[in-house]
Design goal:
Structural class: alpha/beta
Number of strands: 6
Distance between the termini: 15 Å
Length: 234
């Protein structure tokens, strides 16, 4: 099982997932893409397709057989691209809180986040992402911890690396026309109240994927892998 991070995430966030799956006999890979975590950053001029190609190379180095690939948000797009162009490496695909094309709503939201990052800074982006990604219940329960969690995010994320990752979408071409090429089993997972990548985005993918199931996570938002790990693992 291979995990692909979302924007601002790192491999450590999959530790509980990796432990549970390893206990069940799976070999688990959680890695940091270029620009994330402990991998090289900032990286200028990286294209979206390079992330999937680097993953294919990493799997070669690890002598890994077919993998179940799970990606969330930005990582879900990378996972879809990998599935289209490196489909022979897949045993299955899980795409969470993601998209295959930029709907007008998603494109405008992405532009606002990019402008906030470049014109105001990382603190603004972090402040926006918490209420966008989490439920009111989670925010209320963790309100006192959020400032320290945000400071941890400043340490773990590089402003220019995030900018470069977001800029890899500048020439993003919809993957929707090629989704029919993905023949293996696909599980789409979408939070019921995810307004960043809403059900519309996942229905577009489901309509084109030949072997697909869409699972809606009740009462969940964009970052349900963080908020509801037990449900996600199940």
């Amino acid at each position: 099982v291979t995990f692909v991070n979302g924007l601002t995430q790192n491999a450590d966030l999959w530790t509980a997932y990796g432990n549970r799956l390893a206990d069940r006999g799976y070999r688990v890979l959680a890695y940091d893409m270029l620009g994330q975590g402990q991998s090289s950053k900032p990286v200028l001029g990286v294209e979206l397709s390079e992330h999937a190609d680097l993953l294919a190379g990493l799997l070669d180095v690890l002598d890994a057989g077919p993998t179940h690939l799970a990606g969330i948000s930005f990582g879900g797009v990378v996972a879809l691209d990998f599935a289209v162009r490196h489909g022979e490496r897949l045993a299955g695909l899980v795409v969470m809180s993601s998209f295959a094309e930029l709907t007008p709503q998603l494109e405008l939201l992405g532009n606002v986040l990019y402008e906030g990052l470049t014109q105001v800074g990382l603190t603004y982006l972090q402040s926006m992402l918490y209420p966008m990604n989490m439920s009111s219940a989670w925010l209320a329960a963790n309100r006192e911890r959020i400032p320290s969690m945000m400071r941890s995010g400043y340490i773990g994320n590089d402003l220019y690396a995030l900018q470069n990752l977001m800029e890899s979408f500048i020439a993003f071409k919809p993957l929707t026309p090629r989704l029919k090429e993905i023949r293996g089993p696909v599980l789409l997972m979408n939070g019921e109240h995810d307004f960043f990548t809403p059900r519309e985005c996942h229905e577009l993918m489901r309509s084109e994927l030949p072997n697909c199931r869409l699972l809606l996570i009740q009462h969940a938002y964009h970052a349900f892998t963080l908020e509801l790990p037990e449900i996600t693992l199940r």
